[in-house]
Amino acid sequence: MTRGVVFDLDGTLIDSLPDIAAAANALLADHGLDPLPQKQIGSFVGMGERVFLDRLIAATALDAADYDALMVEFITHYKASTGLTTVFPRVLEVIQALKAEGYKLGICTNKPGGPLAAVLEAIDLAKWFDVIIAGDTLPVRKPDPAPLRLAFERMEATQGVYVGDSDVDAETAQRAGVAFAFFTEGIRTKPIEEIPHDRAFERFEDLPSICREILRPL
Ligand SMILES: O=C(O)COP(=O)(O)O
Ligand SMILES: [Mg+2]
């Protein structure tokens, strides 16, 4: 029996919204536009870079006709914006505790591969994980369950939990048939009670016991 815990990244393991906001505001500045507040930019996060850019364009005077060039510019800023990102408190201890308990560990994020590699390198996080699935690893992304299923398959897990911070993560877990542990302190735009979950937590030190309780056969 192999037990696996897969984590979302942005707003779950890492507090990356300051860097995502910095990248978006650098793009706006390039086009002579005023910055947006970080909270508003947080409401664009969760479904990958295309939805993010669509929402940014809709909220500003960026010109949708330049979509492809804007995406290239945004990704360039996004890859360079890693200095403000921190790992949430106690994440590293908990990851090591779960590993010591014999869990396989994975990441399943909608962040695209380029910015993902850049931030993982900056905070030296990749070394703890058996599998890392980016937003562009497959042609489909969360809330499609395929990326999450792939993470558990690659770990050869027979029991699993997904840990995330958003309604997109909750839907992904539900569609993959995996238990969902909901970190409530991330980039959340909906009330906790509107996001279906098996267990919610606000402190990472509570996660190991939650995982033991809610593991679901895959
Ligand atoms: O890049 C996004 O839109 C969100 O990333 P996440 O899936 O790690 O929260
Ligand atoms: Mg997230």
From TrEMBL:
InterPro entries assigned: HAD-like_hydrolase_sf, HAD-like_sf, HAD-SF_hydro_IA, HAD_2, HAD_sf, PGP-like_dom2, PGPase_prok
Record EC number: 3.1.3.18
Organism: Marivita geojedonensis
Molecular function terms from GO: metal ion binding; phosphoglycolate phosphatase activity
Protein name: Phosphoglycolate phosphatase
GO biological process: carbohydrate metabolic process; DNA repair; glycolate biosynthetic process
UniProt pathway: Organic acid metabolism; glycolate biosynthesis; glycolate from 2-phosphoglycolate: step 1/1
Pfam families on file: HAD_2
Coiled coil: none
GO cellular component: cytosol
SUPFAM superfamilies: HAD-like
Family listed: Belongs to the HAD-like hydrolase superfamily. CbbY/CbbZ/Gph/YieH family.
Binding of Mg(2+), residues: D8, D10, D165
Keyword flag Iron-sulfur: no
Keywords, ordered alphabetically: Carbohydrate metabolism, Hydrolase, Magnesium, Metal-binding
Catalytic reactions of this protein: 2-phosphoglycolate + H2O = glycolate + phosphate
Active-site feature positions: D8 (nucleophile)
Names of required cofactors: Mg(2+)
Role of this protein: Specifically catalyzes the dephosphorylation of 2-phosphoglycolate. Is involved in the dissimilation of the intracellular 2-phosphoglycolate formed during the DNA repair of 3'-phosphoglycolate ends, a major class of DNA lesions induced by oxidative stress.
